[in-house]
Design a protein that fits this description.
CATH architecture of the largest domain: Beta Barrel
CATH topology of the largest domain: OB fold (Dihydrolipoamide Acetyltransferase, E2P)
Strand order of the largest sheet: 1-2-3-5-4
Bound molecules: zinc ion
Strand content: 35-45%
CATH superfamily of the largest domain: Nucleic acid-binding proteins
Length: about 170
């Protein structure tokens, strides 16, 4: 059983069974990973307070086939809205370190244009994949840019698209 320590940004949390929690982290050394936290929903949990979404933490976790956080220490808070943290979770691949994105987030320089540029999807000058007009949204699921009217035409829920500045 391997044990790892890394700095990470907590992206999201969700209940897992009666007492446990499933957390998604963006870790400096490992990229995005999902990990269980035992008894995180118990009122006596020592870890839960450190693992609120948007927190920068140093975490220790075990790889037991799946990941389990065994220690966490909060070191700061990112100024990123919960909905954007969830979009980051949906956008990032599993277990792929993204050092440039990590640096951008640690600097407190979060913007979707910056994040997408760092990941290789520069919104500047990007065109709608359907009509060629100036792009206003990026779809993480499709990895393509779209304009606002094509998003509407597709019946897309705008929440699932990332707003960009062309
Ligand atoms: Zn379009």
């Amino acid at each position: 059983m391997e044990e790892y320590v890394t700095d990470a940004l907590v992206l999201t949390k969700a209940p897992m069974g009666e007492r446990d929690g499933r957390y998604t982290l963006f870790a400096e050394r490992f990229g995005k990973l999902a990990a269980k936290v035992k008894s995180s929903r118990a009122i006596t949990s020592k870890l839960a307070g450190h693992l609120e979404p948007g927190s920068f933490v140093t975490v220790r976790f075990l790889d037991m086939g799946s990941f389990q956080v065994v220690d966490a220490l909060k070191s700061g808070k990112a100024d990123i809205a919960p909905a954007d943290l969830a979009r980051l979770r949906d956008l990032l691949p599993d277990l792929q370190a993204e050092p440039d994105l990590w640096q951008l987030l640690v600097r407190g320089a979060f913007s979707w244009n910056g994040v997408l540029r760092t990941l290789g999807w520069d919104p500047r000058g990007a065109c709608c994949a359907l009509c060629g007009r100036s792009a206003e949204y990026f779809s993480g699921a499709r990895q393509e840019f779209f304009c606002g009217s094509c998003v509407l035409k597709m019946g897309g829920n705008r929440v699932s698209y990332i707003k960009v500045e062309p």
